[in-house]
């Protein structure tokens, strides 16, 4: 009897340790991704940006830096697509070295599919390869206003053009190699032009299938070098049913693509004014999801608390999908750092900042990371 009891006790202790280990493994860090998203610096701003990484990002525990590169790089495959003042490989190595010292992963972004123009100007891809334009019949205006009769926000390239991926994948490979990155962000937000009725290739094709097809094509290419695909999540949300509108969600039925793309795509879910609960939706669909605030500190704090609460009460299957937080800035490092340090410049403030100076990305960054730090300490 004594031996039986001792055996039972040993098994109980071992089993307890086993379950404790599993529970700890399932819980993991409260915010696996602690991200920061900003435009890539200009070449003459690299050193100041590295100083900011050392003194502000690293001490806050930032582990993921999403750099919006686009054409701010001296591409060798298609040099005509590079900005006049663009980062060199040496610049990228300096930034990468600084990030490695702090265990910060760099994820470069090039806007793919949508955002191929801005205001009155075409971006380099359509400027140099006009044949890729999904809507060549819609001309760029001399003066841009929204709304407009053409429904023009940003141009898109045609995802079914037979030559477009040869060009964009060459750029993707170059920039990923330059930053030694294990992931790539393809943008793909706010795509309004897709499957246009006048496009000889896309006309009549299901827009959800077109969007999913492009996601899958990019993901397949990245997979050849074991790189992850990250995208913004707005086109995968039903804008009409949710009432979230045409910017934060889709009105052209691309939202059905959420069931047509691989679950290893990482979804960056952005909501800037309301702490919408869509991360739960993406997690239930099987995706890892990151919540992305911008310029409203109070909203970012709620979003950080939401992410912690969802993870705390989630099933073991769902916990890893609540992947973390990422501060977006939607400005260049120079302007962000000036705002962060209270340096007065002649930079034009946005309409929102003019109405309420507290609505800005630098104060949001401070507030979000402060609350994340508090919640991490409470969870231990």
How would you describe what is shown here?
By secondary structure, the chain is an alpha/beta fold. 40% of the residues lie in helices and 13% in strands. The radius of gyration is 22 Å and the shape is globular. The model is unreliable at 1-26 (pLDDT under 50). The protein folds into two domains: 29-103 and 265-380, no CATH class; 111-177 and 187-205 and 220-262, no CATH class. Strand 4 (117-118) and strand 5 form a beta hairpin. The strands form two sheets. Strands 1-2-3-6-7-8-9-10 form an eight-stranded parallel barrel, surrounded by six helices. A two-stranded antiparallel ribbon has the order 4-5. It is built from 13 helices and ten strands.
Features:
alpha/beta, 380 residues, disordered N terminus, two-stranded antiparallel sheet, 10 strands, 2 domains, 13 helices, 8-stranded parallel beta barrel
Give the neighbour order of strands across the main sheet: 1-2-3-6-7-8-9-10
Question: Helix segment count?
Answer: 13
Following the backbone from N to C, one meets helices and strands in this order, namely HEHEHEEEHHEHEHHEHEHEHHH
Whole-Å distance between the termini? 40 Å
Name the poorly predicted regions: 1-26
Question: What's the topology here?
Answer:
Layout: H1 2-27, E1 33-39, H2 46-57, E2 64-68, H3 89-101, E3 105-112, E4 117-118, E5 121-122, H4 124-128, H5 164-178, E6 183-187, H6 207-223, E7 228-232, H7 239-242, H8 245-248, E8 266-270, H9 278-284, E9 289-292, H10 297-313, E10 322-328, H11 333-340, H12 351-355, H13 361-379
Parallel strand pairs: 1-2, 1-10, 2-3, 3-6, 6-7, 7-8, 8-9, 9-10
Antiparallel strand pairs: 4-5
Helix pairs in contact: 2-3, 10-13
């Amino acid at each position: 009897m004594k031996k039986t009891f001792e055996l039972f006790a040993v098994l109980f202790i071992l089993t307890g340790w086993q379950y404790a280990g599993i529970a700890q493994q399932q819980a993991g860090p409260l915010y696996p991704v602690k991200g920061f998203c900003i435009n890539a610096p200009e070449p003459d701003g690299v050193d100041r940006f590295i100083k900011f990484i050392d003194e502000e990002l690293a001490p806050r525990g930032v582990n993921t830096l999403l750099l919006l590169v686009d054409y701010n790089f001296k591409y060798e495959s298609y040099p005509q697509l590079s900005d006049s003042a663009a980062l060199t490989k040496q610049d990228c190595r300096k930034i990468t070295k600084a990030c490695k010292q702090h265990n910060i992963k760099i994820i470069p972004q090039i806007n793919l599919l949508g955002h191929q123009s801005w205001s009155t100007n075409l971006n380099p891809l359509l400027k140099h390869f006009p044949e890729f334009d999904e809507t060549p019949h819609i001309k760029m205006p001399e003066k841009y206003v929204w709304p407009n009769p053409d429904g023009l926000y940003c141009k898109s390239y045609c995802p079914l053009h037979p030559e477009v991926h040869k060009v964009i994948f060459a750029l993707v490979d170059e920039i990923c190699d330059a930053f030694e990155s294990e992931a790539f962000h393809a943008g793909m937000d706010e795509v309004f032009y897709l499957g246009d009725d006048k496009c000889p290739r896309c006309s009549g094709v299901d827009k959800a299938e077109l969007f999913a097809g492009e996601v899958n094509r990019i993901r397949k290419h990245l997979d050849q070098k074991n790189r992850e695909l990250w995208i913004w999540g707005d086109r995968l949300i039903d804008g009409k049913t949710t009432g979230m509108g045409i910017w934060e969600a889709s009105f052209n039925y691309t939202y059905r693509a959420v069931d047509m793309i691989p679950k290893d795509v990482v979804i960056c879910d952005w909501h800037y004014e309301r702490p919408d609960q869509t991360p739960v939706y993406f997690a239930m669909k099987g995706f890892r999801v990151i919540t992305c605030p911008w310029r409203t500190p109070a909203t970012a704090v709620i979003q950080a608390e939401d992410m912690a609460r969802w993870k705390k009460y989630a099933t073991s299957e769902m916990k890893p999908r609540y992947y973390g937080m990422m501060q977006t800035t939607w400005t260049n490092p120079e302007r962000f750092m000036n705002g962060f340090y209270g340096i007065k410049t002649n930079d034009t403030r946005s309409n929102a900042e003019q109405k309420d100076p507290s609505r800005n990305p630098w104060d949001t960054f401070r507030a979000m990371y402060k609350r994340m730090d508090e919640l991490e300490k409470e969870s231990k």
